[in-house]
């Protein structure tokens, strides 16, 4: 999961996310990389008034299924994230890209609540806490 928010006063419309997993290819001699486009819970949202948590379910169809923290290190795994949106104020497409290496992944965590409301009852978001998380127990993987 990755969480993002629009820190500007402009509206972002038709936001689209792509997440690619890049790992070392250990099946061929020499140094090469494999790339996997990860299936996301939602690839596009119409508006982003607050925040968006981008989720890839790790199930039997995921290239990450059954992988351990050590596997991520052995693969030199990197997650490449690209966000495209239409900025309503400037009437143009805007793009953002970032990446996370395997050692930046937080295992056994869930995002903390960043939502609240002001004295008038208007929803607020604490952007300074967007990266905050709470530790949780990981589910136990049962092999067939």
Q: With helices defined by DSSP (H or I, 4 residues minimum), what is the helix count? A: 1
What CATH architecture would you give?
Answer: Sandwich
Order of helices and strands: EEEEEHEEEEEE
Please mark out the parts with pLDDT under 50 across 5 or more consecutive residues, or reply none. none
Q: Would you tell me the structural class of the helices and strands?
A: mainly beta
Radius of gyration: 18 Å
Main CATH class? Mainly Beta
Mind telling me the CATH superfamily name? G protein-activated inward rectifier potassium channel 1
Total strand segments: 11
Average pLDDT confidence is: 92
Description:
The protein has 144 residues and is mainly β. It has one domain (2-105): Immunoglobulin-like (Sandwich). 5% of the residues lie in helices and 43% in strands. The strands form four sheets. Strands 2, 3, 4, 6 and 7 form a five-stranded antiparallel sheet that branches. A two-stranded antiparallel sheet has the order 1-5.
Task: Describe the SSE topology.
Blueprint: E1 2-5, E2 12-24, E3 33-37, E4 44-47, E5 51-54, H1 69-75, E6 78-87, E7 92-101, E8 109-111, E9 115-117, E10 123-125, E11 133-135
Antiparallel strand pairs: 1-5, 2-3, 2-4, 2-6, 6-7, 8-11, 9-10
Explain briefly what this protein structure is.
The protein has one helix at 69-75; strands spanning 2-5, 12-24, 33-37, 44-47, 51-54, 78-87, 92-101, 109-111, 115-117, 123-125, 133-135. The protein has 144 residues and is mainly β. The strands form four sheets. Strands 2, 3, 4, 6 and 7 form a five-stranded antiparallel beta sheet that branches.
